[in-house]
Amino acid sequence: MPHFDQTLDVKGAKCPMPLVKSRKAIAELSVGQVLQVISTDRGSVADFQGWAKTAKNVELIAQETVQENGQELYIHYLRRTA
After folding, report:
1. pLDDT at 77
2. Which pTM does this prediction carry?
3. Which residues lie closer than 8 Å to 17 by C-beta, 6 or more apart?
4. SS3 of residue 30 by DSSP
5. Model pLDDT, residue 1
6. Residues with catalytic annotation?
7. Of 79, 74, 72, 67, nearest to 39 (Cα)?
């Protein structure tokens, strides 16, 4: 698990809301800070990979899937780069 500066919990939010809320949250961070996003939406894995490829101010530094109370959580770590 990478170091992170802020956590955004978007459990229960369906596509595209995890991405929409993350864009807003990353804009509020300083350059170099890392946002941890916790989602229950399986589609968020590909969504965040696609966002990181096209965005000029975000780097996807890690993704992981964990189990919590029988539910899969998709965790993304994004660094603001600009």
Report:
1. 98
2. 0.95
3. 10
4. coil
5. 82
6. 15
7. 74
Strand order in the sheet with 6-10: 6-10, 34-39, 71-80, 58-68
Q: Which residues contact 81 (CB under 8 A, 6 or more apart)?
A: 31, 32, 56, 57, 58, 59
Structural contact between residues 80 and 29, judged by C-beta atoms closer than 8 angstroms: yes
pLDDT in tens, the chain (82 residues): 889 999 999 999 999 999 999 999 999 999 999 999 999 999 999 999 999 999 999 999 999 999 999 999 999 999 999 9
At a CB cut-off of 8 Å and minimum separation 6, what does 43 contact?
15
Extract the tokens encoding 75.
């965790």
